[in-house]
Amino acid sequence: MTSWVVKTALALNKRGHHLYLLSHPKSKINKSLPLDIKLIEKRLGPSYNPVMIGYLVYFIITYKIDLIVTNIDKEVAIGGIAARLTGIPNIRRVGREDDFNNRFRSKWCHKLLVDSCIVPCQTLIRNARIRAPWLNPAQFKVIYNGRDISEFSPEIINLQRLRMGVNPGIKILGINSHLHRKKHVEHLIQAFARIAPDFKNWVLVIVGTGPEERNLRNLAIESRLTERIIFFGFVENPMLICSTFDIAFSVSKIEGFPNTIVEYMAMGRPVIATDVGGVREIIRDGINGFVVPFGDQRALVDRMVRLMTHEEMRQQFSREAIKTVRESFTEKQMIDDLEKYLKGIVKHR
Questions:
Q1: Do 62 and 175 sit in the same domain of this protein?
Q2: What percent of the chain stands above pLDDT 90?
Q3: CATH classification at residue 138
Q4: 92, 162, 165, 183: most buried, per Cβ within 10 A?
Q5: Are 93 and 166 within one domain?
Q6: What percent of the chain has pLDDT over 70?
Q7: Average pLDDT of the chain, as a whole number
Q8: Is the domain of 196 the same as that of 115?
Q9: Same structural domain for residues 116 and 7?
Q10: Rounded to an integer, what distance in angstroms lies between the CA atom of residue 182 and that of residue 97?
């Protein structure tokens, strides 16, 4: 959600729309915004907080707000009530199916306080309705996450590889991920451990931070691969990092529509991803990437070996990945669809 908020806010602001972003004072999103995005640092407090509802009502009336966008239950409860009191739409943006559930309060808030819901893929709608059968599919609008195709010179890429501790001639298996249990990066380490002795010119680079980092480092030690598994931490420019990968991965158990896969493919990286969320809405198995069942180590290792040993296949996937993003998943397409949708809601409210 953070990445989506920043990108859409910047793009819509450049198109002449007036945006106000309400954010927790300690949110990391605050540092990502330029000065021309109007940032209001406020703590929401508890759900149905009357003080914040009153503040939002005042703000909506004072600044003539046309609509608001919310995400989590607390935002829906507070922002949705303020929207109802002022007669403007509340649009909920949801990135993952597990944001919905059957709890009475969640159901009550969504059905009474949400006018429509933006999601990043069709699969999320189907899976969300399994979790929460009361959802109305007509209420949803699919707007795919987008990334622009970028190019970096070989000199910049090689310099970045050296900064990562990767010597010339060494190839990279790479993953950029929040290091959380749901991401299951340990599956990738375990798969690499099985084939590492036969592929001495390959290393595994893990980009990102999170609560599972210590456990993952310990697993690397237990696998005796500390010299061939590089933990590179958080990066400000994920696209540059993606450009250094020879094969990129997503091995999560649950996803909506993974931004990292779009980033990998926008950089022309061949991708292996688990069959979760909307992955199959961007990856065509065997054409622009590989899709494997979650937790299937045999399938993961098989696809890894096939790509590692066949450079022509990597090049084919690379070409098809760029073609896929260019045709369907650019940032311009994402912003065009979002702008058209929001304008339509305001016009017909």
A1: no
A2: 77
A3: 3.40.50.2000
A4: 92
A5: no
A6: 98
A7: 92
A8: no
A9: yes
A10: 13
**Total structural domains in the chain?**
2
**Does position 256 have pLDDT exceeding 90, yes or no?**
no
Find out whether 171 and 201 touch, Cβ atoms under 8 Å. Answer: yes
DSSP single-letter state for residue 249: E
Decide the pairing of beta strands 271-274 and 290-292: parallel
Instruction: State pLDDT tens for residues 95-153.
Output: 888 888 888 888 889 999 999 999 999 999 999 999 899 999 999 999 999 998 888 99
Identify any residues that bridge with 93 across adjacent strands, giving them in sequence order.
Answer: 118
Q: Do both 217 and 320 map to the same domain? A: yes
Interstrand relation of 290-292 and 116-119 (parallel, antiparallel or unpaired): unpaired
**Mean predicted confidence (pLDDT) in 39-54:** 91
Confidence of residue 35 (pLDDT cuts 50, 70, 90): low
Question: Do 122 and 167 have their domain in common?
Answer: no
Q: Which residue has the higher pLDDT, 40 or 250?
A: 250
Of 242, 335, 252, residue with least CA distance to 295: 252
Other Cβ atoms within 10 Å of 90 Cβ, number:
21
List beta partners, residue 172.
203
Enter the tokens of residue 209: 């931070």
Residues 130 and 221 in one domain: no
Side chain identity, residue 93 = R
Q: Are 109 and 83 in contact (CB under 8 A)?
A: no
What is the Cα 203 distance to its own chain's centre?
Answer: 25
| Contact predicate 57/32, CB 8 Å | no
Q: How far apart are the C-alpha atoms of 70 and 232, rounded to whole Å?
A: 33
Amino acid in the structure at residue 170: I
- Is 100 in a helix, a strand, or coil? coil
Interstrand relation of 271-274 and 247-250 (parallel, antiparallel or unpaired): parallel
Contact 174, 207 (CB under 8 A): yes
Residues 307 and 195 in one domain: yes
- Predicted confidence (pLDDT) per residue in 290-306, tens digit: 999 999 999 999 999 99
Provide the residue range defining the domain that includes 212.
Answer: 154-328
Q: Residue holding tokens 């605050």?
A: 30
Please return the burial class of 36, using the count of CB atoms within 10 Å of its CB with bins 0-12, 13-18 and 19+.
exposed
